[in-house]
């Protein structure tokens, strides 16, 4: 089977960049990305590709090249489903906020809705690809909906998890470590797998395209994220010990990272990991383990989250303690709000929780982030429901540049590792601040010695 038309449901951080790269690399395939959110689609179609709704280095250029040629963004979900041979499901699967599994299990309502929509519309056999990270055995549920509510057509369900990291999505998509495709071991399943392999083979070496059964593929994605997050919690646990003992966590990370069995990546101590995946996927893993009665397995992975929450709390407590145990009415400037650099995504960003703690202590928060708007910052805080939207609005202010944001501040907290922060005239910032001037580097990106020589009271993570 040769694929010529692809539909992707969900024009978010996964669907948008992934489909843009498929379209760029496969000009012979028509790729249509659909979303229920009309504003999102309008933004993807903005004539100026710098205004597309997702900021990722290199993405706007790819969209400019492929959009209108073989890449389309549309709200006509049913039409796109009907025309395509392959349908990717890239809708969001947040942690449930209600009912059974609340706070742990993945909320599959958007996935189920997609499956029902596909079942309703499809008049010919289709390949349905799970792109969103999903609990193991979701493919089975999708298949059951498709087979029992559809028009009698045949569906093949593939699991093809996305491993891109935000901020580096384009390079990750262009040069993936591997592509994973899980499918049924029946002849029809194998035919579907092979059709999808052919799509990726347009730019990825065949040796890097791994095929497995569906369950292995689904579980591999959860496992990869759990292992990555575990490394961060492990180094963050050591950071607290370093602070007590006089060791420097950056030196420890470097020393252990040179052991080829450990490797140097994902050993940066920080204020805590954020993003839409790590916490959600681990909670999901914990929930699955518990549902099979595997309590030790569940407890083991839950500790990664417990450590991460502790790291965020520890950071805000340290600010309060260092500022003489009170931050009431003090101005604390956050540099960075996104969960990592080079993205405008703020989901689960440590900044949200640190700000929430400090506002509880009656601090005034000022934020500068190169890519995050005030509306998004306030939405993030309002979502926690700790206090009214009016109170958040009265407490948080934002500035269009760091120099203005830091003026008269009692303390600066670096929450995101944006490169530009390392290029600032820190003397100038120091001169404009309240004295003594404190700096809490939640990402260990600044030069502690230089800042201390200027006069800052510097606090990094793990030293
Ligand atoms: C992650 C996975 O890396 C990716 O493969 C998967 O598809 C989705 O989840 P993402 O969340 O976009 O990607 O970014 P990632 O680079 O993994 O960073 C996650 C969080 O961990 C960020 O808040 C980052 O700042 C933090 N982090 C990362 C650290 O604190 N220390 C590190 O050493 C690495
Ligand atoms: P991710 O990081 O997983 O890509 P996002 O929240 O950025 O998550 O994107 C998911 C997108 O999926 C959103 O834009 C949302 O509007 C869209 N979506 C959710 N359910 C449906 C659906 N049934 N049909 C079309 N789009 C949907």
Automatic annotation (TrEMBL):
Class of this enzyme: oxidoreductase
Q: Which UniProt keywords apply?
A: NAD, Oxidoreductase
Catalytic activity field: UDP-alpha-D-glucose + 2 NAD(+) + H2O = UDP-alpha-D-glucuronate + 2 NADH + 3 H(+)
Residues given in the record as substrate binding sites: 162-166, 221-225, 261, 268-274, 339-340, 443
Organism domain of life? Bacteria
In terms of InterPro entries, this protein maps to: 6-PGluconate_DH-like_C_sf, NAD(P)-bd_dom_sf, UDP-Glc/GDP-Man, UDP-Glc/GDP-Man_DH_C, UDP-Glc/GDP-Man_DH_C_sf, UDP-Glc/GDP-Man_DH_dimer, UDP-Glc/GDP-Man_DH_N, UDPglc_DH_euk
One GO MF term, please?
UDP-glucose 6-dehydrogenase activity
Under which EC number(s) is this enzyme classified? 1.1.1.22
Listed GO biological process terms: glycosaminoglycan biosynthetic process
Q: Which residues form a coiled coil?
A: none
Residues annotated as binding NAD(+): 10-15, 35, 40, 91-95, 132-133, 166, 277-280, 347
Q: Where is the UDP-glucose/GDP-mannose dehydrogenase C-terminal domain?
A: 333-448
Which pathway does UniProt place it in?
Nucleotide-sugar biosynthesis; UDP-alpha-D-glucuronate biosynthesis; UDP-alpha-D-glucuronate from UDP-alpha-D-glucose: step 1/1
Pfam family of the protein (one): UDPG_MGDP_dh_C
The cross-references to Gene3D superfamilies, in alphabetical order and at most eight, read: Cytochrome c1, transmembrane anchor, C-terminal, NAD(P)-binding Rossmann-like Domain
What does the similarity note say? Belongs to the UDP-glucose/GDP-mannose dehydrogenase family.
What is the annotated role of this protein in its UniProt record?
Answer: Catalyzes the conversion of UDP-glucose into UDP-glucuronate, one of the precursors of teichuronic acid.
Which named protein is this?
UDP-glucose 6-dehydrogenase
State the species of origin.
Flavobacterium sp. CFS9
């Amino acid at each position: 089977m040769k694929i010529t038309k692809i539909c992707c449901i969900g024009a978010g951080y996964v669907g948008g960049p992934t489909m843009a790269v498929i379209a760029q690399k496969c000009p012979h395939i028509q790729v249509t990305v659909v979303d229920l959110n009309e504003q999102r689609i309008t933004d993807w179609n903005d004539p100026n590709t710098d205004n597309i709704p997702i900021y990722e280095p290199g993405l706007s250029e790819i969209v400019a090249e492929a959009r209108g040629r073989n890449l389309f963004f549309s709200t006509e979900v049913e039409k796109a489903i009907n025309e395509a041979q392959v349908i990717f499901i890239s809708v969001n699967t947040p942690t449930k906020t209600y009912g059974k599994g609340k706070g742990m299990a993945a909320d599959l309502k958007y996935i189920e809705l997609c499956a029902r929509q596909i079942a309703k519309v499809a008049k010919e056999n289709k390949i349905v690809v799970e792109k969103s990270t999903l609990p193991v055995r979701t493919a089975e549920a999708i298949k059951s909906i498709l087979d029992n509510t559809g028009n009698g057509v045949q569906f093949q369900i593939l699991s093809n998890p996305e491993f891109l990291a935000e901020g580096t999505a384009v390079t990750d998509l262009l040069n993936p470590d591997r592509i994973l495709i899980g499918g049924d071991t029946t002849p029809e399943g194998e035919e579907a797998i092979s059709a999808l392999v052919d799509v990726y083979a347009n730019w990825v070496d065949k040796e890097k395209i791994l095929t497995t059964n569906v369950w292995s593929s689904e579980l591999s994605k959860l496992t990869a994220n759990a292992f990555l997050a575990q490394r961060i919690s492990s180094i963050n646990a050591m950071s607290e010990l370093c602070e007590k003992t006089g060791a420097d966590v950056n030196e420890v990370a470097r020393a252990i990272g040179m052991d080829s069995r450990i490797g140097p990546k994902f050993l940066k101590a920080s204020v805590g990991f954020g993003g839409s995946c790590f916490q959600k996927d681990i909670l999901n893993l914990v929930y699955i383990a518990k549902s099979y009665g595997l309590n030790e397995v569940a407890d083991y992975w839950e500790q990664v989250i417990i450590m991460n929450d502790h790291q965020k709390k520890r950071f805000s407590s340290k600010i309060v303690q260092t500022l003489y145990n009170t931050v009431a009415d003090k101005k604390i400037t956050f540099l960075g709000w996104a969960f990592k650099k080079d993205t405008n995504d703020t989901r689960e960003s440590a900044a949200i929780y640190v700000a929430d703690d400090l506002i509880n202590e009656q601090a005034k928060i000022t934020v500068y982030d190169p890519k995050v708007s005030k509306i998004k910052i306030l939405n993030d805080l309002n979502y926690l429901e700790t206090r009214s939207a009016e109170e958040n609005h009265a407490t948080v202010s934002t500035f269009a540049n760091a120099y203005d944001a830091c003026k008269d501040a009692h303390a600066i907290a670096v929450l995101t590792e944006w490169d530009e922060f390392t290029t600032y005239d820190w003397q100038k910032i120091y001169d404009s601040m309240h004295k003594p001037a404190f700096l809490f580097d939640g990402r260990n990106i600044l030069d502690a010695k230089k800042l201390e020589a200027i006069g800052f009271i510097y606090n990094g993570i793990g030293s």
